[in-house]
Amino acid sequence: MKVLVLGSGAREHAIVRSLVADQAVDAVVVAPGNPGIDRIALCEPLADVTDGAAVLALAQRHAPDLVVVGPEAPLVAGVADVLRDGGFDVFGPSAEAARLEGSKAFAKEVMSAAEVPTGLAHLCTTVDEVAESIDAFGAPYVIKDDGLAAGKGVVVTDDRDEALAHAGACLAKPGGKVVVEEFLDGPEVSLFVISDGAKVVPLSPAQDFKRVGDDDAGPNTGGMGAYSPLPWAPEGLTDVLVTRVAQPTVDEMRRRGTPFVGVLFIGLAMTSRGPRVIEFNARFGDPETQVVLARLLTPLGGLLKAAATGRLDEYDALRWSDDAAVTVVVASHNYPGTPRTGDPITGLGDIEGVPTAYVLHAGTALDGQGTLVSAGGRVLSVVATGADLAQARERAYAAVDLVGLEDAHHRSDIALRASRGEVGVS
């Protein structure tokens, strides 16, 4: 089986790494990829992953048996539709189904119809409406850009002025809308569910760390690290979430005539009133994918092909490693603001000496002299596994310490509280 993967981040590097390890996969082509992916797969230039015609031409040239769409932007732009119309099997939802991520308001509408437990929310189109809504809900204030925002469209704050300022910035965009939600307490869980439009197969839950600084200080980012499994999660949590959230949502999308084929990413808060959905995404999450796929023993290529072709009934339970996995994101100077790029990256070869540790490239490039340099905000995802979270953490951070990147930063507390048994559900 030949697989074409669209994307260029650490999430795609993790997907490609798992596909290459699948004995049923003969070749992997990635567009546009990155220097790390280029070491294990064929990378093809692609100026714009949302350009359906360009992606289709690339697919026609390589004739893959499966196309996997990594990022959200091409899904919302309808690239999966163009490929399916061109006769290709695609792992990734249609533009209509991807609205579960493309519009927070649409996702809330589907949740309501499917009776999925979630927080109360108001859709607002003016700052006055936002002010009225946040005053009704009270602090902490939760303000979400209705559209795509690369994981940085959400502000949670006790500062009313900050909340209104963020809402104003979102509303200033063409067609800008914001969703104001009640604050949901409790630890967060990320669950990926593979769907063929009818059946769903869950992956192992993970937890990510959105804030830039230790102890969840500072602004939201695309994600600074993650770990899996969750030793503190209630027994049977995944089954409950499939029954109460994933299957009803997939059933509702099919009832609407827009079946969801791909991975439904469910972001949840384990509140004192039970699990509540914070958001849906229409693709694998980054950085959770890095730790979930590190533990998946079931071959990935066959699983994604089965989802793309309506054959998930061939899968019941997936096989998982008993090991824990931790990933730590190494970020550029000034991320999540305007990151500095072009700085040389060194030390990656030394990481091979750390047991189980490896590096997934996110924002990297080769300069004119062939030197590996930073090319984005989140530069690398450093992954390690271990017998438990403590050992996985120890190895991941030993590897991070070997990375040379001037003025880079990372969180030092990824999975720390969980490894100490300090995370719980009230």
Span between N and C termini? Answer: 47 Å
Class based on secondary structure composition and strand pairing: alpha+beta
How would a textbook summarize the main sheet? 5 strands, parallel
Helix content: 25-40%
The name of the CATH architecture of the largest domain is 2-Layer Sandwich
Which percent range describes the beta-strand content?
Answer: 25-35%
Mean pLDDT: 95
At the first level of CATH, the class of the largest domain is Alpha Beta
Question: What's the CATH topology label of the largest domain?
Answer: D-amino Acid Aminotransferase, Chain A, domain 1
| CATH homologous superfamily designation of the largest domain | ATP-grasp fold, B domain
Number of helices: 13
Unreliable spans: none
Number of strands: 22
**Number of discrete domains:** 4
Return Rg in Å: 20 Å
General form = globular
Strand numbers in spatial order across the main sheet = 3-2-1-4-5
Keywords: ATP-binding, Ligase, Nucleotide-binding, Purine biosynthesis
Catalytic activity: 5-phospho-beta-D-ribosylamine + glycine + ATP = N(1)-(5-phospho-beta-D-ribosyl)glycinamide + ADP + phosphate + H(+)
Organism: Knoellia flava
Family: Belongs to the GARS family.
